[in-house]
């Protein structure tokens, strides 16, 4: 008798399971929610847009104080170890509604393709394509379909890229790439927001595992191996290790302002602090700030937006995104 149960090909628990027929079962994704006009809690409106056959996004528009005021733009990249979560999930929707409302910023939350179906570097390429699409609205390029919310409400002199965890990693790499490759219309990145950034190396530090055996069991390391099998350089690939010998100089970041957020109990805290210190010593000409929340863990503010420390963090993020140009 033939069993109807599908055969497992590989697993990355507790996140997902891959079957031999190519299907993937994800366990920790939060539910899909539709966009909404004037969210009752925040007043933020959202809608879904198609950037290309492979890339989409959810765009968020807060109520501007005046009909003529242009708003800063945040190209946002969600976390999830490159393999789970979505720009269209409940957690993402609630988080971005709150941030857009408090910062008065227009947000484009990018739905990049996930591993293992689309291994790295797909997430980076999709995110770069989405950023180029945003930039196309600052030019007369007719090769891109234009989005009215961006045309009517966006201030292309105040463009931010940011994200949480693996999304922060993406934002870091986009800001480096923007220094090497031009964005449409000559658009430049004004600020970068890195919340609990996901960086690694072959040499663990601080709270990270201290032996090869521990590394094999650690989810931080397993996630990178799962998302990018046979990555050149492994954990010292410049995409995941900004201090590797092959990594671009941190002094080349294309932005004038940078905010690095860390949490006291986060296993990635020390890497975030090390990144902040390295930026200061790199010769980079912008202003870098470090914001730490005590007593909290990785991306705590996404999972419970009502807790006291989350409200403090939202206030800090909103301040960074809404500060006028000098």
TrEMBL record:
Instruction: Specify the Alpha/beta hydrolase fold-3 domain's residue ranges.
Output: 75-301
Gene Ontology MF terms in the entry: hydrolase activity
From which residue to which does any coiled coil extend?
none
The protein's matches in Gene3D superfamilies, at most eight in alphabetical order, are given as: alpha/beta hydrolase (3.40.50.1820)
Pfam families noted in UniProt:
Abhydrolase_3 (PF07859)
Q: Which family does it belong to?
A: Belongs to the 'GDXG' lipolytic enzyme family.
> What protein name applies here?
2-hydroxyisoflavanone dehydratase-like
- The protein's organism comes out as Coffea arabica (Arabian coffee)
